[in-house]
Amino acid sequence: MTRIAASTPYRVRLILNGRERVGQAESRMLLSDFIRHELGATGTHLGCEHGVCGACTVRVDGVASRACLMLAVQAEDRCIDTVEGLCDGDALGDLQAAFKRHHALQCGFCTAGILNSCVEFLEKMPEPSELDVRDMLSGHLCRCTGYTGIVAAVLEVAAQRRGAQPETPHV
Amino acid sequence: MKPAAFHYARPDSRSEVLKLLAETGSDSRVLAGGQSLMAVLNMRLAEPALVIDIGDVADLSYIEIRDDRLCIGANTRQAELLAWPDLAERVPLLTQAMPWVGHFQTRNRGTVCGSVAHADPSAELPLCLAVLGGEIVLERRHWRRGKRVVPAAEFFHGVLTTAREPDELLTEVRFPLARAAHQYHFTEVAMRHGDFALVALAAAIGPDEIRLGVGGVADRPVVRRIPRDVDLDTELNTFAWSLGAEDDGHASAAYRRQLVRELGRKLLTETKP
């Protein structure tokens, strides 16, 4: 049994974007704060901190999860993937490049979380309909784009990955 | 929006969880998927002395059929239930209701039992459990009377309040399997898909009677038995008024009553024979 006393630092080891990382966390520290402040990966943003806005969405062992609804100590020995892991060296990944092309972001605050949801979504559903994409996006709040550019970008990447032409989304 | 300090324990076995609950009772909270509890902790609506994380208790993660019930363990995630291949055939009401439970990002971690234990009046899973007449299994550390099975009708006491005693762990929920010649339907109205329901309705329609359940209006899911030979509009109107709807920031009481009448009629009449 793992036991951690309140307000006592605890050594948390996890795999962040494929690299082993170690930091100190109190039991009450959220995974989102641990990633940002202990590990310095500030690409993950925090909006509402109660699971509604989706900005802090990361992948925990491959599945999209709210980093604000998880304790850092719960992530011990797990694989955490964040937006920092999506690029290929200095080049943007295909999802990121499509977001740029389609103006799927403006201020960019919500984008990291949306990209992480998209990664798992496209793995599970390689041929999504526009409705599927919009349903997936219902777990995220974006106040700039109106979502249309995001839907277009996701559909385009899905089509590219299977070598087909993307459908044009309805406005 | 950060939790207050707490002691943390992550036991490996059910008996260790029950021992901790016996020692701490109402000073502790059980953490499974965290999709309700972590929000409550972040907003400091609860400040427990001890958080007991049951994530490492392997024998609490299962989906299995026993007798005529689908039994789901306390660590089983909502996404796992939705992906269970026999769900549409065995408990079709859940196939319809599960996509309304939060978003896929929260269903990935949120547990079925956690939603039932949290007992939000607008939550879909407690409503389904009530309409189907399911059961909740509670366990505590006791040499003889360690386990009790509570019918859903007696489990939900009010907003975030249940029959669970502070030293008990909700270990399992049991959904009755679909019965022959019955139909099951679910619908909901929310501001956005995945938001809390303004009104949610679930129905089990049998040859002799209809069981109609409403969530999001009263302080708990409410189920009414409707005989097949009554005037449906009158029955739905009586049901809508009986729920004690109140105005709040999301909707007026009158709107909620109207949703019960309209969606109720739609759910019970616009379905195939």
How would you portray this structure in words?
The complex is a heterodimer of chains A (171) and B (273). Helices cover 30% and strands 16% of the residues of chain A. Chain A is α+β, with helices and mostly antiparallel strands and 171 residues long. The model of chain A has no long low-confidence stretch (mean pLDDT 95). Chain A contains 5 helices and 6 strands; from the N terminus they run βββαβββαααα. Chain A has helices at 31-38, 94-101, 111-124, 130-137, 148-161, and strands spanning 2-4, 10-16, 19-25, 57-60, 63-66, 79-81. Chain A folds into 2 domains: 10-85, Beta-grasp domain (Ubiquitin-like (UB roll)); 94-161, Orthogonal Bundle (DNA polymerase, domain 1), CATH 1.10.150.120. With 273 residues, chain B is an alpha+beta fold. Chain B folds into 3 domains: 7-53, Uridine Diphospho-n-acetylenolpyruvylglucosamine Reductase, domain 2, CATH 3.30.43.10; 58-176, Uridine Diphospho-n-acetylenolpyruvylglucosamine Reductase, domain 3 (2-Layer Sandwich); 183-269, Enolase-like, domain 1. Helix content of chain B is 31%, strand content 27%. Chain B has 11 helices and 14 strands. Chain B has a 5-stranded antiparallel sheet with strand order 4-5-10-6-7. In chain B, strands 11-12-13-14 form a 4-stranded antiparallel sheet, sandwiched between helices. In chain B, strands 1-3-2 form a 3-stranded parallel sheet, with helices on one face. Chain B starts with 6 loop residues before the first strand and ends with a helix. The model of chain B has no long low-confidence stretch (mean pLDDT 95). Chains A and B meet through strand 1 and strand 5 of A and strand 1, helix 2 and helix 6 of B.
